[in-house]
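I am still getting used to backbone structure tokens and would like to learn alongside you. To get us started, please write out a protein record for me. Start from the sequence, derive the backbone structure tokens from it, and show both lines together. Once you have written the record down, we can walk along the chain together:
***
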Amino acid sequence: MRAGKRLKIKLGFESEKERKKRVAREKKEIEKNNNYFKSLSTIKTKIEPQMNTDIFKEVLWKEGKEYFNKMHREFTVDDKNRDFLNLICLYFSKNIEFEKVTDGELRKGLFVHGVCGTGKSSIFDIVQNISRKHHLKSLWFKNISVHQVTTDYNLKGEDVVKKYSKGVIHFDDLGTEKMANSWGVKERLMGRVLEIRYNEFKAKGTRTFVTTNLTLNELKKYYGDRVYDRLFEMFNFLQLEGESRRF
């Protein structure tokens, strides 16, 4: 309201017609404000559902059976993988017991190693399915084979390095990829990707998941001391024991 109108009202020079219009405007403004604050009070914050370890274990068992049933195989839990699966449930349900049992840290990623066919890659597929079906965004990650990373790089160049250096990602079959080759320059690309992701982890806490058939010593020879040293800061190490279950 302009100063002239305020003075007119204060001195009592406002006509009845003007007064009615002013009262109607003020009433409308008050009603508008009341409706606004009422709408704020009815807004519901969307909270991500949480799963404790026992519930997560039940869901993992169910999803595991469905996952392997599609491949006409059985989801088997035995002495070879029971402890590993229990640790997976502790980790992805954010249970502090994981740190006590493994002497690890929930803030770090997972480095899962073991021989071919034990189910290392499958468990990440299953967790990804759980994340999608139960709307658990905090568990979501990308699944990518290291072979695909190298192939993409050979075709598209440096943009691929940027693409796979951000966000939570599971890299499958680490150490089995071929040498990357862009413009005649050959390199073990995943070593560079891991170094960049190490910096992302230090700066932002970005986690990385890895599955591999190789031992740590074999990876050290493959990528060198620099990458090898960083693995211990980035990962919790879990071994999935046993022989191949594919046959």
